[in-house]
Write a structure and sequence with these properties.
Elements: H1 3-8, H2 11-34, H3 41-64
Helix pairs in contact: 2-3
């Protein structure tokens, strides 16, 4: 998901997406600990995508105040 796509989401959709992505990230990390992934850089990509989503959400919070 690109930054432009993240910014197009509404705030409730973004919050739901963050929760879903964090759950998927945690599951992927657990699976990677048990059996190595074919592409371990997916974990890094997911972590950074979650961070971008949280950044956009925080910017919206600060702009509304």
């Amino acid at each position: 998901m690109k930054l432009a796509e993240i910014k197009e989401l509404t705030t409730p959709e973004l919050q739901e997406r963050i929760v879903a992505e964090e759950a998927a990230y945690n599951q992927k990390c657990i699976n990677h600990a048990v059996t190595p992934l074919d592409n371990p850089s997916e974990i890094k990509h997911m972590r950074r995508m979650i961070a971008q989503m949280k950044t956009v959400l925080r910017q919206r919070e600060l702009n509304n105040n």
